[in-house]
Structures are given as structure tokens and as C-alpha cells.
User: Which sequence fits this backbone?
């Protein structure tokens, strides 16, 4: 009986670990983040985490359009973060993809 309980618990622990996010290997301050079996950069060249970068993109989009990034449609946010695109450039791209009517200069 003890073996089956341990097997169930080990399987549950593996499921939890597969869906969890951890930085690098053993939280050593590595520059990668592991999620569901793949490694993602934890910080871009500006030293921002993806969450910090997205908050800044959202702040800029909101200031320009009055809408947040969740309101304007999909954009390649993660790809641009990984490419170290500046938040203001990503905000502009996201708004362009959403056909936002920019005023002509």
C-alpha cells in the first residue's frame, strides 16, 4: 500500500513541476526561465523581465489609445521581448497591427 501512495505522490509532483515556472536550474540567478519543458529568456537586454516589459508596453498603449493590450488584439509580444525590442516600439507595432488611426504629422 505504501508503494502505491508514493507512486501517486511522485506523479503529482511531476505534474506540478511540469506546469510550474522556475528560473534557470535550481534558482541560481540564470538568465533563462523554464516553463513546461522549454527555456525562455528571463530578462531582455534592458534587464527587464517579460512581465515588467509587458506592463510598460501596456502603459504606453493605454496612454496613446485609451485601451490596454488585452483590448487591441494579438501581437507578437513574446517574440519582440526576446528580440529586445523597446517597449515604445512594441506599443507602436501593436497599435499598427490593430489598425489604430494614428494622426498624421
Assistant:
Amino acid at each position: 500500500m505504501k508503494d502505491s501512495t508514493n507512486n501517486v505522490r511522485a506523479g503529482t509532483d511531476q505534474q506540478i513541476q511540469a506546469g510550474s515556472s522556475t528560473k534557470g536550474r535550481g534558482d541560481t540567478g540564470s538568465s533563462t526561465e523554464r516553463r513546461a519543458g522549454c527555456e525562455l529568456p528571463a530578462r531582455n537586454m534592458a534587464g527587464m523581465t517579460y512581465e515588467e516589459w509587458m506592463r510598460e508596453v501596456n502603459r504606453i498603449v493605454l496612454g496613446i489609445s485609451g485601451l490596454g493590450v488585452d483590448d487591441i488584439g494579438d501581437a507578437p509580444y513574446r517574440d519582440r521581448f526576446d528580440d529586445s525590442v523597446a517597449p515604445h516600439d512594441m506599443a507602436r507595432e501593436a497599435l499598427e497591427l490593430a489598425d489604430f488611426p494614428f494622426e498624421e504629422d
